[in-house]
Fold this protein.
Amino acid sequence: MKRFALLLTFCLVISSSLYGQAKVGVRGGVNLTFFNENQEQFGLNADAEVGYFGGIFVDVTISEQFHIQPEALYAGVGEFEFINAPIYAKYYVADSVSLAVGPSLNYFFDFFINKLKVRADISAAYHFSESVETNLKYTLGFEELSPNVLFLGVGIKL
């Protein structure tokens, strides 16, 4: 939890120092977690489970089409909980559509021996306005016992 608070503080400091170039927002929605390995520790339905997520993001404008976007999301699937913190390179392919890719740090609570994992995220978003968007993102786990997660959510810039 200390790392999440540190990440949240970092995002807020960055956004306040880039006032005018950065916008802070909130994001939430549902996720579908796919487990790579059928192990007892994943429970009875080890293939896939539906959960929820919520958190914050900072959208930093570099140019009209290119943005940097760090996020800090808390996600849960039953008793399985983790923090997903990607840093995206986001590119607007059209006025209302953006694609983003980047590494993510993931901290798993009470699930793995190695709780901190580096993973890869890819995302696509449709922007209804400058303030409201819907997005679909996929987090890919590289290790054998690292779940892949599909996120579907809504983001609102404050």
